[in-house]
Amino acid sequence: MSMRVAEPHDVPLAVATLVGAFFDDPLWAWAFPDPDRRRDQHTAVFTCLVASAVERGWVWGNDDFAAVAVWIPPGEPELRPTEEAILEAAVEEVAPERAAALAAMSAAFERAHPDHEPHFYLSLLGTRPDRRGESLAMSLVAENLRQMDLLGSPAYLESSNQANVARYERVGFEPISTVPVASSGLCFTGMWRTPGSR
């Protein structure tokens, strides 16, 4: 599969793909429950996350970004303090009543995140809805993981949709935690991959 690193001008394309991919995701739909407003709300949040990650050089997509993988390299925060402030302002603008829910979800992710050794973190992965079923996203991740194997680096992700756990297991990730998100009735699965696992 042809793939490339995202540049700043690719951010809108990447975000549009992720918005479509996560529209019905159990956890992200809980965070923003109004379907009439959710697309704009997801766009605001994902734009902050993707724009920040692009600067780190590990946002990958196929040629038209119908599939997108947002990785945070070892030793890097997902968001710097100034970027956290931008995200908070964006949420306050598009969904002030959901700020506490999003904070609870973020806190659960943060608590579960392993810190015993440096690793790549898969922050977001998605496929544009009209391209589902072509294995685009998992092919992208598999290629990324080959690069990480060459670097000798482990990887970590949180699966917010339990239906995706088996897909990640097929490329070498193993569940290491099941974490509830306060008041949502939902949980996510933390998954770890050691270099070379298949």
Task: Describe this entry's structure for a reader.
The chain has 198 residues and is α+β, with helices and mostly antiparallel strands. It has a single domain, classed as Gcn5-related N-acetyltransferase (GNAT) (Aminopeptidase), CATH 3.40.630.30. It is 44% helix and 21% strand. A seven-stranded mixed sheet has the order 1-2-3-4-5-7-6, with helices on both faces. Helix 1 (11-22) crosses helix 3 and helix 3 runs antiparallel to helix 4 (81-94). The longest helix is centred in the first third of the chain and has 20 residues, at 35-54. The mean pLDDT is 95.
Number of domains as seen in the coordinates: 1
Which descriptor suits the 3D outline? globular
Estimate percent helicity.
40-55%
The radius of gyration over CA amounts to 16 Å
Q: Could you give me the name of the CATH homologous superfamily?
A: Gcn5-related N-acetyltransferase (GNAT)
Instruction: Give the strand content.
Output: 15-25%
Total number of helical segments? 7
CATH architecture: 3-Layer(aba) Sandwich
Whole-number mean pLDDT? 95
* CATH topology grouping: Aminopeptidase
Return the CATH class.
Answer: Alpha Beta
Strand order of the largest sheet: 1-2-3-4-5-7-6
Largest sheet: 7 strands, mixed
The helix/strand order is EHHHEEHHEHEHEE
Which class of secondary structure composition applies to the elements? alpha+beta
Describe the oligomeric state of these chains in a short phrase.
single chain
| Sequence stretches where pLDDT stays below 50 over 5 or more residues | none
